[in-house]
Amino acid sequence: MKKIIAMLLALVMVFSFVACSNTNDTKDESKGESVSEGDSKDESNKDGNSNGKKLTIYTNSNADGREEWLVSKAKEKGFELQIVGAGGGDTLNRVLAEKGNPQADIVFGLDDAMFGTIKNENLLVEFEPDWAKEVDEKNISGKGYYYPLVEQRIMMLINEKYIKEGPKDWVDLATNEKFKGKYKLPSNLTGGTNQKALISVLYAFKDDAAELGVKEEAWDVVDSWYKNGRVTPEAEDENENFSNGKIPVTFTFSSGIPGAEKQFGHKSTPVNPEYGVVSMKEQIGIINKGDDKDYQLAKDFINWFGSAEVQGGWAEEFGSWPVNKKAQEKADKRMVEIMEQTTPMDLDWEWVTKNLSSWIEKVELEIID
């Protein structure tokens, strides 16, 4: 029975990829399932784009004022938005469940692997935004069906006030006795950032010819990682533990770093392994509602939302790192430093998508007590 339950959980967990955080375990930038509508009055768009027509948008990036900001700014341009916000896995599952009768016009915020799943289900419309050429080609993986807005990097951090020389990579962290009991361990593998921490450990052992896509010795390292780390109890705050030196090695997503540093008064030092850190892109795409659907309104919105002006404003307001190169000049200075201090990992997302559920199942059944 335990194995059956764990297998079912593992299948669900693969859908929770996007990286963001609450107090103790990372989750999506969603404030929980919510529906927000703009003013229903029919207003003409000053730019001739929408004529007051409504767009339904599914997203996992609606927390901390994002939803309200987007609805307000879009209304100024004549777009009336209905935002349906939920976690990344829930958003993905909803899109897939509605395949026979899609309700969303646009989805944004989900990562490369999630959008790949949506595309494979023929649920996206081919479209090239006006701003696509302002994005480095290496950041575009959607083959004309979805495009990146924001980059998140998931990385290990050390507090140099308490630990002068940190681990060189995730394998060193897991196997070096001097870090025993000093680093944060994920309490579960349901969150996107927690999953990417596991991916970071396994990446050094990638072997497409091996079972589960990794060399057998990888699991000894994962076992050590779990045995030697510390899960943050619910009564404690992981950022406070990092700040006061109780747990001087942690991991998180890039856009969460500046806010935590300001709140707790510490300085984080990223660990940049030789092979880099996990980098994922929050994507945007148009939902396929059939050949007879007019998609012009959705295209107009994406052209506006992904523009340098709007993404620059989004970066200023919410501390993100836009992939639109013209918008990056508006990014927080601390974010610029973090991006300069880390290198994106050359991650094969097909490898991840193929094996993640099996990795989680193995960890749940054989490693986590």
TrEMBL record:
Entry-linked InterPro entries: SBP (IPR006059)
Q: Which Pfam families match?
A: SBP_bac_8 (PF13416)
Single GO MF descriptor? thiamine pyrophosphate binding
Which GO terms fall under biological process for this protein?
Answer: thiamine transport
Region annotated Disordered sits at: 24-57
- In the record, which residues are listed under signal peptide? 1-21
* Keywords, ordered alphabetically: Signal
Q: By its UniProt entry, which SUPFAM superfamilies does this protein fall under? A: Periplasmic binding protein-like II
Compositional bias (Basic and acidic residues) = 25-46
Cellular component annotations (GO), alphabetically ordered:
outer membrane-bounded periplasmic space
- The answer, when asked if Signal is one of the entry's keywords, is yes
Q: Where is the composition biased (Polar residues)?
A: 47-57
Matching PANTHER family: ABC TRANSPORTER SUBSTRATE-BINDING PROTEIN, THIAMINE-BINDING PERIPLASMIC PROTEIN-RELATED
Q: What name is this protein filed under? A: ABC transporter periplasmic binding protein, thiB subfamily
